[in-house]
Amino acid sequence: MLEFTDVETSRLRLRRFKDTDLAAFLEYRNDPEVARYQSWEGISEAEAWAFLREQRDLQPGVPGVGMQIAIEHKESGELLGDCYFKLEAEEPRQAELGYSLARAYQGYGFASEAVTAWLSYAFRTFDLHRVIAITDCENSASVTLLERLGMRREGHFIQNIWFKGKWGDEYLYAILREEWERLHG
Ligand SMILES: CC(C)(COP(=O)(O)OP(=O)(O)OC[C@H]1O[C@@H](n2cnc3c(N)ncnc32)[C@H](O)[C@@H]1OP(=O)(O)O)[C@@H](O)C(=O)NCCC(=O)NCCS
């Protein structure tokens, strides 16, 4: 099994979650603005500990098992947020991506920097063919990020999800390996 290796960018370190992330993780996971378009509403301290324990034992690249990768600011050591990454159980050359940043760290290009680095690493390391991301159509920051990454809107689902008390619409974005390499080297 592949051991987790940190991925570094000029400002960031993508690494495994650790116990000292608890406070920062609890804070952004319980921020209603961060949760607004996510499947979750918030998290208790016990649930956050369980999450950290679970993450400690995961390795990336196990088909069907989603992993959350911590995004750390190298200079300050602060936890800024995380990337979600899962290889499809049935077809592990396809993967799904997700991301969250604490509110204070949005608007600095950190998500773009983290996701670009992670996808470049993941396309190579897991021999991926295609990566997808699904976003609420109203989540304009997420739509902008996916388009900035060069992902293509392939689907627009209308009221396909019962989401926080109402039917929601979602976009499906995707990018193929050769497209990623053309755009990001
Ligand atoms: C989706 C999300 C990660 C996007 O974060 P973000 O900070 O807007 O995304 P980026 O990293 O691409 O940053 C882009 C912004 O940083 C600015 N920026 C500042 N310095 C920059 C730099 N060095 N490089 C690039 N952009 C920079 C850009 O101008 C842009 O600002 P704007 O949105 O005002 O135009 C964030 O909104 C979030 O965590 N939301 C809550 C969780 C969520 O909904 N996740 C998605 C579920 S599908």
From TrEMBL:
Q: What is the species listed in this Swiss-Prot or TrEMBL entry?
A: Dictyobacter alpinus
Record-level Gene Ontology MF annotations: acyltransferase activity, transferring groups other than amino-acyl groups
Signal peptide coordinates? none
**Which keywords does UniProt give here?**
Transferase
Q: Does 4Fe-4S appear among the keywords?
A: no
PANTHER family in the record, alphabetically?
GNAT FAMILY, PUTATIVE (AFU_ORTHOLOGUE AFUA_3G00765)-RELATED-RELATED, N-ACETYLTRANSFERASE DOMAIN-CONTAINING PROTEIN
InterPro entries, sorted: Acyl_CoA_acyltransferase, GNAT_dom, N-acetyltransferase
Quote the Pfam families the UniProt record gives.
Acetyltransf_3
Know the name of this protein?
Ribosomal-protein-serine acetyltransferase
- Boundaries of every N-acetyltransferase domain copy: 12-178
